[in-house]
Amino acid sequence: MNNEATRREVLKDTGKFILLSGAARVALQTMRGEPVVEPDKYKMAEHWWGMTIDIDKCIGCGNCVKACAAENDVPEGFFRTWVERYYVPDADLDSPQVDSPNGGFNGFPEINRPVNAKTFFVPKLCNHCAHSPCVQACPVGATFESPDGVVLVDQKYCIGCRYCVQACPYGCRYLDPRKNVVDKCTLCYHRITKGLTTACAEACPTGARKLADLKNPNDPVHEFLRDNHVEVLKPHLATGAKVFYKDMDEAVR
Amino acid sequence: MPGVEGFMYPNEVELQWSILIVLYPYITGLVAGAFILASLARVFNVKEVQPTYRLALLTALAFLLVAPLPLQLHLGHPERSFEMYLTPHRTSAMAMFGFVYLWYLLVVLLMEIWLDYRKDIVLFSQSETGFKKSFYKILTLGSKNISPRSLRIDDRVGWIVTVVGIPSAFLLHGYVGFIFGSVKANPWWNTPLMPVVFIFSAMVSGIAAVLLVYQIVNRTRGQKIDMLCLDTIAKYFLYVFLIDFSLEMLDLVHRIYEADESFRTLNFMVHTRLYFSQVILQIYLGTLLPIAMVALTQFVKFRERTRRVIYSIAASLALIGIFAMRWNVVIGGQLFSKSFLGYTTYKVGLVSREGLLSAIALMLLPIPILWVLLKLLPPWEERHQEVSPAPAR
Q1: Chain B CB contacts of A162 below 8 Å
Q2: Domain B5-382 of CATH type 1.10.340.30
Q3: pTM of the predicted model, to two decimals?
């Protein structure tokens, strides 16, 4: 009898365990919105960022679009991330019907269509290409690939010529009409350098999109790339895209 | 969504490059074309076109001075455009524009005009009075030497500048073509033929412009039009236009025969939204008709007056056709989605910064500039009759 722990003891030990574990500290800091990684401890050379997207898990709720807009102050009518709905009739695989009402911000209204088709959602965002055509095109070097693999824009330097918008094959860039400079997905650089995930990935209820650090040997991205049929968008353009889609249909473009 | 058919990526709905960016290749094309016509007289010794030599140079200068304005007006932050000179990004096809422009303006065009006019400038600085005198004095850059020997040196150096100027003119405009042709994301632009097509269409438009300016200026001054000169220019106009048209058709045939992933989309676009500007304006009215008109004058003997009318109409049509070509490249390349699943619409604003009125104003601006240049540096021969006998040109 004496050997059995009382309820009080169990609670005490559990509490101690939680308090002492690093997880609690991280959880607490995350809750308070404090940086998990000290800024001076973040080493760019130790990371190589990308994203994985499991198309089968995307339900088209639009939470990612909303979270991104709120987190990054995205101007109305433009999108750092958006969701597309594909409808591919099996009688005509070449002509998928695609829609993305307001970028999928409010989800997707149901449409009654014949059922002899496959239909699915595809979240889109900047592919943070390793050989970015947009970076190549910028005449002043205002947009650049960071050493940790994120394509960013220096908005204090951008002249607003929009050549990069033309050069991006994926339609990920736009001119912010309030600042007259180009804006795009930063992969929530202000968050990921503090050990947090992106706003879109955090808001995704099904875990369809996940931030990936390709240089971190413990990151699940390695398993993801190993165990699945993975594809990037428009591979023939050889942009070195780093947003990896699982089981992507041939119709997606 | 209004104006959208099918699916556009959401950020693509609004066009990024407006009518002002249509003007940019149009105006630089006129510059390059006019210069190449001038070089015909200077380097290739086509004596018949000599009467247009100086006029072509001044026309090129008038347009070159305006060329960067539509770009400046288009930029989100024009005050930062100087960064292109300070920190050019080496991999960018656009970063070199400032340097190519300055090279062409300072080293080629201004130098050639100055060398060619140096004698006149010195004479003016002696014969004029008041403000004009000081103006020409500054233009002499301190050199009053117009001895036969020094003029011979001028001529020699001027010839070298023109020889350098020909590849520079090709560079100026071929480079503009490369800005579009090197965008792999856009199949409507992405072709190695783009710079070549741009150069030849530039020559067509430049020659057409000088053909018109020469007639208008001479008509205004009540001078006789040199018909041999006009006929020769028309002949070159025809030859260059045939090459230009063949290149554009080569591009078209290649696209149709290859029919790659983008073909269905582009084909549909040419048959719908671009039908008027591409098929009607550019190909039929702007290319085939003027080619046929000038070709006719090669086979049928028309009276002088008729020939002049034919040349003028053909040149005007060509100028419209080349403008349509620039429009179809710049605007057409943004009307379809890079997903190849839909199309958007371009609405030109009227009074906005990048609207129609700005475009018209910019397009008219070279005319007063040319007028001032003609006043300051008259290209005709009887300019110093009171001072000295006209040099035999």
Answers
A1: 16-17, 76
A2: no
A3: 0.90
